Amino acid sequence: MEWDCPDCSSIYAVGEPSTNIVSDGQSNGSDNLIAAIRAIEADESLTEQQKNKKRQLLMNKGKGVADLDDDDHMKDKAAAHLYCVICIMLPERPITTPCGHNFCLKCFQKWTSRKNLTCPECRGPIPRSVASQPRINAAAVVAIRMAKTSKLISSEALKKVHHFVHNQERPDKAFTTERAKKTGKANACSGKIFVTVPPDHFGPILAENDPDRKKGVLVGEVWEDRMECRQWGAHLPHVAGIAGQSEYGAQSVALSGGYEDDEDHGEWFLYTGSGGRDLSGNKRTNKYQAFDQKFDKMNEALRVSCKKGYPVRVVRSHKEKRSSYAPSEGVRYDGVYRIEKCWRKIGKQEHKVCRYLFVRCDNEPAPWSSDEHGDRPRSLPVIEELKAATDLTERKEDPSWDYDEEESCWKWKRSPPLSRRTMDTRNPEDKKGKRKAKTSAENLSGRDRLLKGLSCTICRNIMRIPVTAACGHSFCKSCLEVAFSGQTFVRERTCAGRRNLRAQKIVMKCPDPQCQIDISESIKNPQVNRGLMGTIESLKLEAEDDSKVVQNPPENKAKSVYKRRKTNNVPLLSNPDGVGKDDKSSEEQKSKSVSGGTEDEMEVESSTTSESNLKTTATKDSSSSTLQAQLNDDDLE
DNA sequence: GGGCCCGCAGGG
DNA sequence: CCCTGCGGGCCC
């Protein structure tokens, strides 16, 4: 069948839905491999060079990346394990199936939208819940980014959810009622604001406005809830979805699933205005729309930001259940977007709603994107509903925030609107006790945070045998098994010894401390994410090589580990069980071995070095030694 | 899990 | 000062 990849628009032929074009080192679908290669050859949109590369990758994935020697393909070697078999590309937004295979979000959605509920790679079942709400695999994003770049990525998401203000630290007088004291959170909105930007500040919050951390608000930062998001200035209102002033513009919006007309495509989304609801009876919100929305108040503020081309900060909340881009927990800062158009249409509830087209324009890559760079100007998506739109507004003047071709970044082209508010009173002055409470996560460098992204939150080591749960979090297989060992999936119940009640399903929450998602389905038969495992393994090898360059003067040329592996006929992945070695924690030793664990572990001697590594910069070397250091820690523990 | 209740901040 | 609001805890 033919397949046009929505990410890259290339057309590919792939085998039957379930065919095994490429599998973990033991392709049993040679016919399909041939078919896929023919398809690449027949593809007229590709240059010879591109075809060669794709062919190589296809073969390469089947054989375990042993063959590539070209330096240009060093990165591919690491990332090749994570290629999407549908489009044979590196996933922009990796999704992992319960069977442990990785795909582009868009390819996956296209696949499942055709009522294919089996894995394109192994025919394993895809649960409806996964098909309807695929979660981006954060560890795979990190792995791909690391494989693609050796640069330090400053914007990488902190993997830890912040919880900065503890109840006991809030001022006593803020609790005006007994109830508020009891619940703790009710008055959290009186918690301190940590950044020094005025409330009507537009655009990213920079390091200079972050007196404590001196980092600013980073793309991908996650807070426990709207209250804490507010404290970091990303989005101030703790109930309302839009922050703004009708005469002045809107500074930020929250996507949290409150309006069913919202439509999220990650780099762009359609947002619905506020209002039109019956809030009589002291309600704060109401699912049902009773009136038409108008371009007034916050809706007008958004329209001003549209006309002026201001950057609008966007946070996504876990409450947005229909979006694959929403975090599975907490509230996440996703960077700035511009509102390119706004209009009105008849919404799903048959009343008019205000509509806004947001398009991302941030200098940092989005949290779900494997890209190593931020946005470039992109052409506007085709919006079907515009045909029936009324009151259309498009920007006429040059945008205030725009892409500078010379500097290759987004910046203010006109001076940002002058703040009408003073920075005031709420600015914290006493932050004493809190500073020392700084967690190690906050002190990590960008590179270290990347490493953290490849670490299992249970054992805190870099994952050896990763399993990705339905919520998109990944763990060592052995850790997951230990964490849920001895638990059954249903509890038999009897009623006074008379008759059996219906068996009760036991909820197994994701071990990620902040994730509340039930992953019992993923635990029943955890499948190793071999793509992720291979990439992590390659990154480790690369880092080992690099650190050799630092430690030893170059002596030995052009004998990459990949080559050696090939000649020694050693399987790609060392010790897939993650057991049996003396460097294992006792917990890991307790766990059972995983399937296919017959390969021997391969030691990589320190004499191994590669010519290509001689070119590495000092920066890279030092960051790789960080990796090396962590790897050693990993081994020692 | 759904409905209810309510404090709070900010706009107007 | 009143109104609005894509929260969040609690109770059922």
UniProtKB/TrEMBL annotation:
It is found in: Nucleus. SUPFAM superfamilies: PUA domain-like, RING/U-box. Residues 84-123, 456-499 form the RING-type domain. Keywords: Chromatin regulator, DNA-binding, Metal-binding, Nucleus, Transferase, Zinc, Zinc-finger. One of its GO terms (biological process) is negative regulation of gene expression via chromosomal CpG island methylation. The keyword Transport does not apply. Residues 421-432, 579-591 have a biased composition (Basic and acidic residues). GO terms for cellular component: nucleus. Residues 212-360 form the YDG domain. Its EC number is 2.3.2.27. The keyword Signal does not apply. It is an enzyme of class 2 (transferase). Residues 419-442, 545-637 are annotated as: Disordered. InterPro entries: PUA-like_sf (IPR015947), RING-HC_ORTHRUS_rpt1 (IPR047498), SRA-YDG_sf (IPR036987), SRA_YDG (IPR003105), UHRF1/2-like (IPR045134), Znf-RING_euk (IPR027370), Znf_C3HC4_RING-type (IPR018957), Znf_RING (IPR001841). It catalyses: S-ubiquitinyl-[E2 ubiquitin-conjugating enzyme]-L-cysteine + [acceptor protein]-L-lysine = [E2 ubiquitin-conjugating enzyme]-L-cysteine + N(6)-ubiquitinyl-[acceptor protein]-L-lysine. It comes from the Eukaryota. PANTHER family: E3 UBIQUITIN-PROTEIN LIGASE UHRF-RELATED, OS04G0289800 PROTEIN. This is RING-type E3 ubiquitin transferase. It comes from Thalictrum thalictroides (Rue-anemone). The lineage of its organism: Eukaryota, Viridiplantae, Streptophyta, Embryophyta, Tracheophyta.
